[in-house]
Amino acid sequence: MTDLRRRWESVSLRWRVALAFGVVTTAVAALLSVTTWQLASSYMLDQRERGATNQAVVDARLVADNLQRRSDELPTLLVGLAGRPETSVLLRRGGTWTTAGRETDVEDVPPALLSAAPARQRVEVDGVLVLAVAIPVTPDGDMFVRLASLTELDRTLRFLSGVLVIGTVVAGLLGTLLGWWTARRALQPLSELTDAAGRMAEGDLSARLPVRREADLAPLASRFNATADALEERVQRDARFAGDVSHELRTPLTTMINAVEVLRRRHGDLPETAGRAVDLLGADVQRFHRMVEDLLEISRGIQVPDGHDLAPVDLAVVVENVPEALVPGADVEVAHPAPLVMADRRRLDQVVANLCDNARHHGGGVVRLGVVRRDGQAVIEVDDAGPGVPADLRERVFERFTRGGRSGRNGAYSGGTGLGLALVAQHVHGLGGRVWVEDRPGGGARFVVALEEVSS
Amino acid sequence: MGTRVLLVEDDERIRQALGLALADEGYDVVETATGEEALEVVDPDLDVVLLDLMLPGIDGIEVCSTLRSRGDLPIIIATARSDTADVIAGLEAGADDYVTKPLIAGELAARIKALLRRRRPAGAEEAPGSPELRLGDLVISPGRESVERAGQPLHLTHTEFRLLVELATARGDVVTREQLLQRVWGYDYFGDTRLLDVHVRRLRRKIEPDPDDPTLVLTVRGSGYRTGP
């Protein structure tokens, strides 16, 4: 029972409503059909029986007259009385039977009917339902029997029952359909809510419910939208804060960079210790600069969804224009013809540059840059021959400030901002694509950017 | 005399630091803090203007279009962010190039050098007698830096002219965005293609009979531009 109940509850609400509608309409239609059937069939049978009985009474009177007059026209009369071929008449006269009309065996006439005469009874003769009416024609036991076929009535009733059954089924189906449609309309706001909440969970903070006028639904929509507004504003405020901070940092940064640049140009004039101090300062000012830029870029990405900067970009052009200094000695492999993608060129360039930069610092340098097609998508592959990325880090490397094992501890690479791959992920997602890292055949890591290909 | 740069920047610390570093790179720097001041001190000896778009008083865009209406003095605009409408507005107002903050003297020097470089067509000596180019009904004289249509001179800025010559010399072959950015602006990486797109738009407005249905400078989807037909 509980199992059934659980199964019922697992059926979607829409289908449950539809099924309930179907069951109710079927029940109502069935009830109506049964009543109609009862009334119609009994009325028709009654009519038919009464007609047949009256006929038999009239016939019996004719036969009785005939017997009294002792006319020899009796056989002709009987044939005439039988009339239609599916009717038979039987006459018992002095113990012998005479039949006319349809061939009938006297044995088929139930003896109970004869003993109860005048009487009528429905019997089956040779597989055909007939109404037998027996009427005594003389006081000394002569008997007239009329067998009238009920086939036609039977056929009519069968047709009627067919119509009623079909009607019931159709009503049930229509009811289910109506229920489904009604439920769909009624549940529309719910599926919109599910939709909007889902989009929001995926990070689309602009998802909202349409405002409805129905009193029952308006509060739901406005409450949901207000919550979404608040959430969106909060996320944007956080992003704006990061952006504002970075923005404000740029003024002192400009002073620092340019002052350090002046000092560096005069490196030769400086005492050795001062020169080393300038070098240290210069390197960190550079890194500070990159970090501020990356932070700005990241907060910018959250704030403004792309769209207006999109244009078809040839991936071959992208990888072929990566500066040699960033990928010294790397193989560049491009599928022919090279795939086009819809992208913002500046961001795409940054994606590739950051991946190359990452390979240079964590994987010993890019060994291959590839543009291929995989599963119907345009794919950029950046391969290095380094130690690869362990499976448990493959998601985390794309988070902000996740440091690769090699860089953080021994300081072999301290120029990174910790934001490079996070920016890659943000840009690629912004372009509707995916980025991941896998093992390179032959050792090392392979960073893969997959984007929707567009036709040229 | 070194290259004279007019630096228009309202933040005093940035102005000082940048002025110092640019002077250290060998530039002769004239510093001003407002647009009004900038328009007053502009003189024919200036080689290039470095203009912050965010200025008190008359804003950078307006200064830019005023300067452009007076002549084709090269203008580099400085914007806070590269992806704002500011960049487009500044370029539409006639700027030749843009840089984003923080401004770094070394990078600026490279931009200025690229902007002021005289164009040297591959293989051709730059001389007043260098061969004329034809594009549709335009006659382009790289030596005199002039473009004429039916004897009437069309006025292009130095940068627009260089862009046109690069396209015309290819004689209908595709010139990629990268090539154009590299040859005209000296970008060898991260060329923001809007710089190019706005310049092409400006160029079309000046040379195309119908800028909305270009017949001389055609876009090649996904790669670059070519001349037609």
Automatic annotation (TrEMBL), chain A:
Q: Which residues form the Histidine kinase domain?
A: 244-455
Record's catalysed reaction(s): ATP + protein L-histidine = ADP + protein N-phospho-L-histidine
Source species, domain of life:
Bacteria
Please state the protein's primary subcellular location. Answer: membrane
Give the CDD domains listed for this entry. Answer: HAMP, HATPase, HisKA
The record's Gene3D superfamilies line, in alphabetical order, gives: 1.10.287.130, 6.10.340.10, Histidine kinase-like ATPase, C-terminal domain
Q: What is its EC number?
A: 2.7.13.3
- Print the keywords alphabetically: ATP-binding, Kinase, Membrane, Nucleotide-binding, Phosphoprotein, Transferase, Transmembrane, Transmembrane helix, Two-component regulatory system
User: Which residues span the membrane?
Assistant: 15-40, 159-181
Annotated InterPro entries: HAMP_dom, HATPase_C_sf, HATPase_dom, His_kinase_dom, HisK_dim/P_dom, HisK_dim/P_sf, Sig_transdc_His_kin-like_C, TCS_sensor_his_kinase
The compartments listed are: Cell membrane
Q: Which residues form the HAMP domain?
A: 184-236
The top EC class, named as a word, is transferase
Record's Pfam families? HAMP (PF00672), HATPase_c (PF02518), HisKA (PF00512)
Q: Which GO terms describe its molecular function?
A: ATP binding
- The name this protein carries in UniProt is histidine kinase
Q: Which organism is it from?
A: Actinomycetospora lemnae
Which lineage ranks, top first, belong to the organism behind this chain? Bacteria, Bacillati, Actinomycetota, Actinomycetes, Pseudonocardiales
From TrEMBL, chain B:
* InterPro entries reported in the protein's UniProt record: CheY-like_superfamily (IPR011006), OmpR/PhoB-type_DNA-bd (IPR001867), Sig_transdc_resp-reg_C-effctor (IPR016032), Sig_transdc_resp-reg_receiver (IPR001789), WalR-like (IPR039420), WH-like_DNA-bd_sf (IPR036388)
Q: Which residues form the OmpR/PhoB-type domain?
A: 130-229
Q: Sorted alphabetically, which Pfam families does this protein's record hold?
A: Response_reg, Trans_reg_C
State the SMART domains in the record: REC, Trans_reg_C
Q: Which residues carry this modification: 4-aspartylphosphate?
A: D52
- Record bears the keyword Repeat: no
Q: Which residues bind DNA?
A: 130-229
Matching entries from SUPFAM superfamilies are given as:
C-terminal effector domain of the bipartite response regulators, CheY-like
Give the UniProt keywords, A-Z.
Answer: DNA-binding, Phosphoprotein, Transcription, Transcription regulation, Two-component regulatory system
Q: Does the keyword Mitochondrion apply?
A: no
Q: What's the protein name?
A: Response regulator transcription factor
Q: What does UniProt list as this organism's lineage?
A: Bacteria, Bacillati, Actinomycetota, Actinomycetes, Pseudonocardiales
